[in-house]
Amino acid sequence: MTKFSDLNLNPKVLKAVEEAGYETPTPIQAGAIPPALEGKDVLGIAQTGTGKTASFTLPMITMLAKGRARARMPRSLVLCPTRELAAQVAENFDTYTKHLKLTKALLIGGVSFKEQDALIDRGVDVLIATPGRLLDHFERGKLLLTGVQIMVVDEADRMLDMGFIPDIERIFSLTPFTRQTLFFSATMAPEIERITNTFLSAPARIEVARQATASETIEQGVAMFRASRRDRSAKEKRELLRALIDGEGEACKNAIIFCNRKTDVDVVAKSLKKHGYDAAPIHGDLDQSQRTRTLDGFRNGDLRFLIASDVAARGLDIPAVSHVFNFDVPSHAEDYVHRIGRTGRAGRSGKAMMICSVPDEKNLAAIEKLIDREIPRIENPLKSEPEVEEKTVATEEDKPKRSRSRGGKKASTNLEEAPVAEAVETTAAQTVETPSEKKAARKDDKPSRDDRRSKGRNGDNKVVGMGDHLPQFIALSFEERRAG
Fold this sequence. Notes:
Radius of gyration: 38 Å
Number of helices: 20
CATH architecture of the largest domain: 3-Layer(aba) Sandwich
CATH topology of the largest domain: Rossmann fold
Number of strands: 13
CATH superfamily of the largest domain: P-loop containing nucleotide triphosphate hydrolases
Number of domains: 4
CATH class of the largest domain: Alpha Beta
Strand content: 5-15%
Strand order of the largest sheet: 3-4-2-5-6-1-7
Shape: globular
C-alpha cells in the first residue's frame, strides 16, 4: 500500500502531514501527486470528499519550497468557485506549510481591498482567489500574473454552473504559457472538456471514480410529497421536513439542509428556529463575516442545522456531517452528487434524504439516470395526499346530465326529480294566465304579430324557403304595403 513517504514530498511537508494524522493517501492523491511533482499538467476527476485539495496543495508546497516571491507577482495561483472553498484551501496551506516559510494571500469578496493589497505588495508564494475578486485586483493595477509558475483550477464544473468560464479563460490568457496547470473537477461537461483541451498540455488524467457517482457509504432515500391544497404546499413541505428530522432521532447529530433558492433558505431557517430547532442560514447574499461565523459554529458543533444554498454544496470539508436533507430536488442532476457528498466523507457512513413534490419528478428521474440507480422511496411520515385522491372520481356515465330551461335557469341535476319538475311547470303554464296573454285577449279584434308573420303574400299560411320566422314586411301584399 502506498504511503505519503513514498511520494517524494519535501521532508518538512511530510512532517506536517504526519502531525495532521495522515499516513495513507487517497486514490486521487496517490494518482495526482507523482505527475504533479514531475511538472506535468494534471487532470483530476473525482467525486467530492476524496481529498482533491491535498492532491494539489502537497506537490505545490514541495515545488515552491525553493525560490522567493516578488512584490505583486505571485508564484502560484489557486482558483476556487466560492469564498468558503477558497478559505478552506487557505487553511490546508496553513496546515501543510507550518514548517516552511511560504507566504499566501486570500482574495475573496466581502473583505477590504486595502488589506489584500498590503499582502500582495509584500509578495506571496501562493495566491488563493475567487475569479471575480482576482480580476478586480488585476484591473486596478495591483496584481501581475506573469510570474505564475503553477495554476490550479478547483471544482471546475462548479465554475461552469456559476458562469465563471469566461473569467477563467481570461485569467488563463494572463498567465505565462509555460505554467504548470492542475485541473480538478467532479464531472466533465463538454464545456469543461473544451477548456482542458485548450489550456492543458498532454495532461496526466487521473480518474478514481466513475463521473458523478455517489459514495457507497451514503444511505439515500426520497420521500414523495403531495400537498393537500396548492396554497398549503410550502407549509406542509416544511412540516414534512421536520417529521423526517424527528424520525431520525438521536442518529441525526447534525445536518445540512439544501434549498434551491436563497429566499427558501431564509424561510426554512426561520421556520425551524420557530419550532425549536437550532438552525441558521448560509447563502451568497449574506455578509462574509456572518457566513464565516455560521460555518465555524457548525464545524465546532455549536450549530446543529445548516440551511444552505448550493454555495455550500462544493468542497466544504466538514467531516462529521451525519445527514443531508434536500428540501428541494436540485435542478441540475450533478448538484445532487455534490450535495450529498457533504456526508459520508473519509469512509464514514452518512444518510441523505430528499423531498420530491410532483413538479420535481422530472428532475428526480434525471438524477437517477445520472447515478445509474434508483433512489429508494421512503414512507412519508405525514402521509399527506390531496383530498381528490381519497374520493372516488365519478365516470362520465355516472355524472348527471345538466340542462338549461328556456328561461335560462339550470334544470335539476337529479334525474328522478326532473320529470316531476317538468310536470309542475306544465300544469302551472296551463292554469296561470300570464300578463302578456291578458293583454292579447283585450285586443281580439286585431291580428296577432305571429298571425301577420305567417300570412303569405297570396293569403297562404307559409312562404316556401323562409321558415316560420318570416319578416313582417315580406308577408304583406303589395296593396297592403302601399296602403300603409
